[in-house]
Design goal:
Pfam family, one (chains A, B): ADH_N
Helix content of chain A: 25-40%
Order of helices and strands of chain A: EEEHEEEEHHEHEHEHEHEEEHEHHEHE
Protein name (chains A, B): Putative NAD(P)H quinone oxidoreductase, PIG3 family
Number of domains of chain A: 2
Mean pLDDT of chain A: 95
Oligomer: homodimer
InterPro entries (chains A, B): ADH-like_C (IPR013149), ADH-like_N (IPR013154), ER (IPR020843), GroES-like_sf (IPR011032), NAD(P)-bd_dom_sf (IPR036291), Quinone_OxRdtase_PIG3 (IPR014189)
GO molecular function (chains A, B): NADPH binding; oxidoreductase activity, acting on NAD(P)H
Radius of gyration of chain A: 20 Å
Keywords (chains A, B): NADP, Oxidoreductase
CATH architecture of the largest domain in chain A: Alpha-Beta Complex
Number of strands of chain A: 17
Distance between the termini of chain A: 12 Å
Low-confidence stretches of chain A: none
Shape of chain A: globular
Chain lengths: 328, 328
Amino acid sequence: MKAVSIKNPGGSEALEIQEKPIPEAKEGQLLVKVKASAINRTDIMTRENKQLSKPYPILGVEVAGVVIENNNVNHKELVPGTRVAGLVNHGGYAEYVAMPSDRAIIIPDNMSDEEAAAIPEVFLTAYQTLYWLGNLKPEETVLIHAGASGVGTAVIQLAKKMTKAQVIVTAGSDEKLQFCKELGADKLINYKEEEFDQIVLDYTKQKGVDLILDFIGASYWKKNFNSIKTDGRWIVIGVLGGAIVENVNLGMLLQKRITLKGTLLTPRSDEYKAQLTNEFIENVMPYFEKKLIKPIVDTIFMLEDVAKAHRYMEESKNTGKIILKIKE
Amino acid sequence: MKAVSIKNPGGSEALEIQEKPIPEAKEGQLLVKVKASAINRTDIMTRENKQLSKPYPILGVEVAGVVIENNNVNHKELVPGTRVAGLVNHGGYAEYVAMPSDRAIIIPDNMSDEEAAAIPEVFLTAYQTLYWLGNLKPEETVLIHAGASGVGTAVIQLAKKMTKAQVIVTAGSDEKLQFCKELGADKLINYKEEEFDQIVLDYTKQKGVDLILDFIGASYWKKNFNSIKTDGRWIVIGVLGGAIVENVNLGMLLQKRITLKGTLLTPRSDEYKAQLTNEFIENVMPYFEKKLIKPIVDTIFMLEDVAKAHRYMEESKNTGKIILKIKE
């Protein structure tokens, strides 16, 4: 089968289509014929990871496709022909992939493969950070940076549709902000034109927000600190603005009684991903079926154009997800 | 009545005995004749606080004494003559104090006033950090610095007697460590002679601890980071080793999926303190009644010697609590 791996760790030019054997569905797994996969920052990190040793893995941590074979007696409902989407540990950029069957989300009939591939990573991350880690409650206020990103667009929808929380977003262009508004965001901040902490404090009557979802890290540290309420929760899920904070005042952390949590979804255990998927299917998929929440697809690239797709993400051009489509 | 306040914010010489009116028990409060109070670091911070404006408060955040008057119809059991201990927002270093009645812990008959005054602040803090914030579970391992301090001695006892967790302590002398061992600590580290992170990693088979209770802050930052397990919880309740960390790697926070929480008990709401006290009475007081857990009193000073008592704490000479006794 065709699959995307790397020659050696490096830039987008390191990506290449290789011929690989079709994987085997081990006990508890499905063999899925992949219709679409999607690009994530974790793929870029893998692509660049100089610690990686050969044989290099097939990239890609999520897919949508069709069940070919089911090797799990506890999930008999997933008969061959069932359309499913879900997280895979790696191997998503390929014509076939093995997926633990307890991560399979059955795709609603009225949803395309490309839309379905836009769900697992960002919506599960959004669900995990808002609810499992962030404990978001109705009437609370959440600040989300990179509102037009994949996770951003998922967070806005979950926080508004499921919890009726107040949502403040930052983004780098008025176009992106307008898109966030259409998804339900209550307060829009163009971080290139305004000091977001000042706007947040004004909007919250100087109290600050209950919850921050932070992909940015170091470069926003001080302003996030200013923006958070006493007893607030602050979840760090990325460090696009740098990892090293030069001066952290723990005294202020005590005074404000802040909870700071670092998290990543990809390295979590199979059991964790299964539990998360299970709860997600129950609580969130009905919103997709009724089209109250929607997957946000920015651009669809063919598998062969994977290097272009990576560059597109690295330039932060996207609003929502970048999809890889696999030819029939 | 006699009460301890300050001339002006400053060192221990700023403390003075003043004549003050006996406070009134407002609705929901008890008037308590104070038999003993105790010294806390928060009192030292108040004493030094240059932002404080006149009239300066009476110091002291915990007492043991006798109910003189009860102005709460919902707590009729607290009749005059009942012996109680509990947190007060301030005013503990005095002959009388007003205390919200939902913070009153009835003192077991077999416990002295001085012992009872050694309970509220450190045991409620230990309970809050271990369970409400730290979510300690049986079979987990907790690292506690300043094991012989007031909070340290409370944490060791709760973690061992209530949860049967593994407890690793650090302290600065072998005498203090021996005392921690008698309270139940499993692993002792003299931080002046050993690198605690190396010992912790060896003891936990390179996994690290599930929970850190950290009074130290900046000077232990890196070693705490090394000592914590993936998915570990790290509660910062003091910054005796400095507040400013010069270089924090958020990338590592993500990789290890660490939860970092800052907390302080004294500034929390009345409602929070009432709930905490209530749960504490139910879950922990039976252990005191059966003498399975004991208040740790280091030294008893008379109220008039309060400046000496503050200096004694500032020199970290104590193992357990420093008590102020009020003359009959």
